[in-house]
C-alpha cells in the first residue's frame, strides 16, 4: 500500500506534461532544376581566381575578394552554398550550415540557411489564380 502512495504522484505528474511537437517533415529533395542552376552558378564562380567550394556548404574565398562584394552578393553566395549542400544530401533543411573562410582560415561567414522549398510558389503555382480553376 505504501508503494502505491509513493508512485501515484509520479504517475500524476507524468500525465501533466505535453509531448513535444513532432519534427517538421521535409518535403523531400530539392528539385533537380534548382540543383542544376545552383551547380552552374557555383562552378562558374569557382573558375575565378580566389574561390574554392567544397560542396558541403563550405567555401574558401580570398579576403580581398570577399570585401569587394556587396552584402547582397554575400547573402546570395551563402544561399547557393546551402542549396548545393542540400542537393548533395538529397534533402531540404530548415537550417543548412554554411561556412566561408579566407585563404588563411579566418572565418568570414557562418550561418544557417533554410533550403525548404514550397514547390507551388517556386514554380509559379499556388497563387490566387490557381484556386479559381
Structure description:
The protein is α+β, with helices and mostly antiparallel strands. The chain has 6 helices and 4 strands. It has a 4-stranded mixed β-sheet with strand order 1-2-3-4. A hairpin with a 5-residue loop joins strand 3 and strand 4 (107-113). Helix 2 packs across helix 4 (71-89). The longest helix has 19 residues, at 71-89. The radius of gyration is 23 Å and the shape is globular. Mean pLDDT is 79; it is low at 3-13 and 126-133.
Compact description:
This protein is α+β, with helices and mostly antiparallel strands and 133 residues long. The protein contains 6 helices and 4 strands.
List keywords for this structure.
133 residues, alpha+beta, four-stranded mixed beta sheet, 6 helices, 15% strand, globular, disordered N terminus
What is the strand and helix layout of this fold?
Layout: H1 2-14, H2 32-46, E1 51-53, E2 58-61, H3 63-68, H4 71-89, E3 96-101, E4 107-113, H5 119-122, H6 128-131
Parallel strand pairs: 2-3
Antiparallel strand pairs: 1-2, 3-4
Helix pairs in contact: 2-4
Mean pLDDT: 79
How many strands, which pairing sense, and closed or not: the largest β-sheet? 4 strands, mixed
Strand content: 15-25%
Biggest sheet, spatial arrangement of strands: 1-2-3-4
Query: What's the overall geometry?
Result: globular
Parts with pLDDT < 50 across at least 5 consecutive residues: 3-13, 126-133
Tally the helices: 6
Number of strands: 4
Which structural category fits the helices and strands?
alpha+beta
Q: Which H/E pattern describes the elements?
A: HHEEHHEEHH
- State Rg: 23 Å
Cα-to-Cα separation, first versus last residue:
68 Å
Please estimate the helix content. Answer: 40-55%
Amino acid at each position: 500500500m505504501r508503494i502505491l502512495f509513493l508512485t501515484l504522484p509520479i504517475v500524476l505528474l507524468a500525465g501533466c506534461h505535453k509531448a513535444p511537437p513532432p519534427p517538421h517533415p521535409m518535403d523531400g529533395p530539392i528539385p533537380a532544376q534548382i540543383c542544376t542552376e545552383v551547380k552552374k552558378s557555383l562552378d562558374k564562380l569557382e573558375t575565378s581566381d580566389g574561390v574554392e567550394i567544397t560542396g558541403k556548404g563550405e567555401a574558401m574565398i580570398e579576403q580581398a575578394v570577399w570585401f569587394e562584394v556587396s552584402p547582397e552578393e554575400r547573402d546570395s553566395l551563402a544561399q547557393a552554398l546551402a542549396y548545393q549542400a542540400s542537393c548533395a544530401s538529397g534533402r531540404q533543411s530548415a537550417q543548412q550550415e554554411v561556412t566561408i573562410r579566407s585563404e588563411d582560415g579566418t572565418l568570414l561567414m557562418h550561418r544557417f540557411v533554410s533550403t525548404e522549398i514550397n514547390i507551388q510558389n517556386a514554380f509559379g503555382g499556388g497563387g490566387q489564380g490557381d484556386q479559381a480553376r
